[in-house]
Amino acid sequence: MVRYVKESGPVTIEDVIGQPIPEARQKTAFGLWRNCIDLRPFEIWFLVTSLFGLLGCIGLTVQRLAIFERHTTDFIFAIVLLVNSVFIVYYVLDGIYRERPYEIATVVIGALILLLYCAAEYALDDQTKCRPLKEGSCSTNSIVKFTRLLLLGVIAPVIMLLGSWIAWDYYRSGNLVFRTVGANIELQRLCRNVYLCETLLKFDLQLAITMVILVLQNQTEDISPLEKAILAAGTVFNVFWTLLGFIGMWLESKYLTHLFLITSVLEPIYIAYKIYDVSSQISDSHVIQPITTTVTFENWTTTDFTTISPSTAIDILGVAVYFVGFLALFLRVLLFVVMLLVYKSYGKGLKEKVYGRPPRALVADEREAIVATDTSPRRFGTAR
């Protein structure tokens, strides 16, 4: 009796259990997504809770954007909240429906960032001094800020707890990786690096856009036309740079990956410069004023000490630039390291399993670019 052995392709679940199983995923414009009936109860709870909180935050933010004056702290924080909320909504959907642990982990980090944004906006703004639960007369702006902070204060911890559990469950089970590359342990490790690199690319773009918003609004009056042009060109460059990273992994192109790694140092240089520039502005805006405090108790004498003037809007934005800037620098270094690991996996048969066959047009364009930049001498000879 002749036994036929499968010569190519990864080992599938059908090969292991010996019988076909119903497909739990369907093809969409965004790739293979899970069917809704395949979601487990805690995944549905996480999905509903996250979308409810994020869409509520987006609704309140959009409503206030129509009222706030431009170039104010409230307007800037509203844009930052809106951009980050939209990114996190994408991470939630992509992470759940494609079983991506790194996307869910990014949701956890993003929920924490949103909570810190709302808390900083409410606590540090000098104009927000009323407490709706204690004072009967509060401005509409203060009530909206308090409502948004309360909404995220209740839902964000739930998102972070459930998200941490789901991310760990996805990572530990490895269903997505197994369905992609099969039971090969080496390919599974390489596939995890690819998925991590994809998530870092998206998160890096999110922080880059946030940084541009903060820098532009933080120096609207003092920023030069040249720097505005640099920021505008830098935003477009970051979008294409992110696409360059995705296409380089998709094609396993060493040429595109080299270009990606070489140009990855441009944004960190500018971020480091802006952190130094903002720190100089904050130090110049602080005015040290002596405050005399008198204590009367038996033989106690008067004590003099100095304090710093209260935080201004520029200081609040400066703290935000610090936070986003240092996080973006750390993320860029991590992305550089992970991309190097992905680069080392080129040529091991991973791209066909993760991305499938790329379009011929992209492959042709890549070959033409390599030929155009190849200046090495060619040897001509006769065939024997």
Question: What does the model show?
Answer:
The chain is mostly helical. It has 13 helices and 4 strands. The strands form 2 sheets. It has a two-stranded antiparallel ribbon. Strand 1 and strand 2 form a beta hairpin. Helix 3 runs antiparallel to helix 7 (185-218).
Overall shape: it is flat
Q: Widest sheet: strand order?
A: 1-2
Helix content: 55-70%
Content of β-strand: 5-15%
Radius of gyration: 26 Å
The overall average pLDDT, rounded, is 75
Query: By helix and strand content, what is the structural category?
Result: mainly alpha
Number of strands: 4
Distance between the termini: 47 Å
The low-confidence parts are 1-7, 286-297, 300-312, 378-384
Instruction: Summarize the main sheet.
Output: 2 strands, antiparallel
Order of helices and strands: HEEHHHHHHHHHEEHHH
What's the total helix number? 13
Secondary structure blueprint with pairings:
Layout lengths: L12 H5 L7 E4 L2 E4 L6 H25 L7 H25 L3 H24 L15 H34 L1 H7 L3 H34 L6 H27 L2 H10 L2 H20 L2 E6 L9 E6 L4 H32 L6 H4 L5 H14 L11
Helix pairs in contact: 2-3, 2-5, 3-4, 3-7, 4-5, 6-7, 7-8, 7-11, 8-9, 10-11
